[in-house]
Design goal:
Blueprint (H helix, E strand, L loop, with lengths): L2 H29 L9 H11 L9 H25 L15 H12 L9 H4 L2 H31 L9 H26 L10 E4 L5 E4 L4 H10 L20 H26 L2 H28 L2 H4 L18 H14 L14 H13 L8 H14 L4
Antiparallel strand pairs: 1-2
Helix pairs in contact: 1-9, 1-12, 3-4, 3-6, 6-7, 6-8, 6-14, 7-8, 7-9, 8-9, 9-10, 10-12, 10-13, 12-13
Length: about 400
């Protein structure tokens, strides 16, 4: 077993070891039990008072749906304004122009629904204000929306018949203050110590080894990237996403980013078991999801490590695998693992270019996106999987 395979096994094993206790923690947060971050309660209560929200009132599924749609509409309009006006708003040291209405619409709606489709390049298409106040904000709240919806599903599964499903706003705010934000701070610190840029200054001017003057984009990257993965959002700060050396400097940050995007989808599987007090059920769900995941990821790793036989016939050395479109600092195997992980949990971030993968690897990436139920995105994977299996396995009579 070579070091590249060991790295993949380490990443998956580390995520699993962290996800089990983290799942227990998430269940405690949504149950309202004592947990590590209870000191955030005053901040949450202040938000409720300002907003006029009674976080203790039980809500029906219809009330929760109305609340979800209402606040998402507000965020959409807010993001549209930021993107269309960014050219004359502050935090624009590089003088990037405002987005057109159609591009702003596409970007705002995409980030709001956790899709993060990008028809722009971050270096020139958005400003620092748009990255932080517009897009990063949407990455937090879209992930929190998915988690809150999953918590409501947990309540529905807990009772055979009920119209009291907890409080959507309570779950939403706690998802932000006690899950997403703390994790993002920890990951951001790791990124900072590994050289990821965190500045509000404009482009750096450097002289290349050839003597050319080059403008290099930086910015508040270390603040943006953590929630990009923790919230399974995937929208990159730079145009090349996590293949960019400033967005993913080394193999350690590559590990952290893969663990970060995987930990909540995996933890939610175990949170379901802890919340319902049906831990065997959560292990069954984990087993089914993992079998499906392995059926996609193992072939990709093998195919990418073997390289492209057509290129090998041209006399090109394929001992490092199919390295076209991949970063040498990550390798073919780790890139293949990322390609399935990011599609199976609907993150969509990349550390290599998927159109350069082997044809059957591309097929597996598309299958992962189509299934969208092997772990799935933050909260969403459990919504899809649990709703299809709960009636059969939880209440067989």
């Amino acid at each position: 077993m070579n070091t590249e395979i060991l790295g993949i096994v380490f990443m998956f094993g580390l995520t699993l070891l962290l996800a089990i206790p983290f799942g227990r923690y998430i269940a405690k947060v949504y149950h309202g039990e004592k947990s590590l971050l209870d000191f955030m309660a005053p901040v949450e209560n202040l938000f409720y008072r300002i907003s006029g929200i009674n976080a203790q009132r039980e809500m029906t599924w219809k009330e929760s749906m109305v609340a979800l749609l209402t606040i998402n509409m507000v965020w959409f309009l807010f993001a549209m304004f930021i993107l269309m006006a960014q050219g004359w708003l502050p935090l624009n040291p590089d003088g990037n122009p405002s987005m057109t209405a159609d591009l702003a619409f596409n970007t705002a709606i995409s980030f709001m629904v956790n899709c993060n489709l990008q028809h722009y390049s971050g270096e020139t298409g958005v400003t620092y204000l748009s990255q932080l106040v517009g897009l990063m904000f949407l990455q937090f709240v879209s992930a929190a929306t998915g988690l809150a919806a999953a918590a409501i599903l947990f309540n529905a599964l807990k009772e055979r018949t009920t119209d009291k499903l907890g409080n959507f706003y309570n779950y939403f705010v706690k998802s932000l203050t006690r899950i997403l934000l703390p994790l993002s701070v920890v990951v951001a610190i790791i990124f900072l110590f590994n050289g990821m840029p965190m500045t509000l200054e404009g482009k750096d001017t450097i002289t290349s080894m050839q003597g050319d003057t080059v403008q290099v984009s930086t910015g508040p990257v270390a603040a943006f990237v953590p929630i990009k993965h923790i919230g399974t959002n995937g929208g990159g700060y730079f145009g090349t996403n996590s293949a960019h050396p400033f967005e993913n400097p080394n193999y350690l940050t590559n590990i952290v980013q893969q663990v970060a995007q995987f930990i909540i989808p995996l933890a939610m599987v175990f949170a379901l078991g802890f919340y319902l007090k049906k831990r065997k059920f959560s292990w069954m769900v984990f087993g089914v999801m993992t079998v499906g995941f392995l059926c996609l990821v193992i072939p990709n790793i093998v195919m990418e490590q073997q390289g492209n036989p057509q290129i090998a016939q041209m006399g090109v050395d394929m001992s490092s695998g199919a390295m076209e479109g991949k970063e040498v600092r990550f390798g073919a195997a780790a890139s293949a693992y990322w390609s399935i992980l990011t599609t199976v949990i609907s993150t969509g971030s990349v550390n290599s270019f998927h159109d350069s993968f082997m044809p059957l690897s591309g097929m597996n990436q598309m299958l992962a996106m189509m299934v969208n139920g092997f772990y799935g995105g933050v909260g969403v994977g459990m919504l899809i999987f649990s709703s299809s299996l709960s009636s059969r396995f939880l209440y067989p009579d």
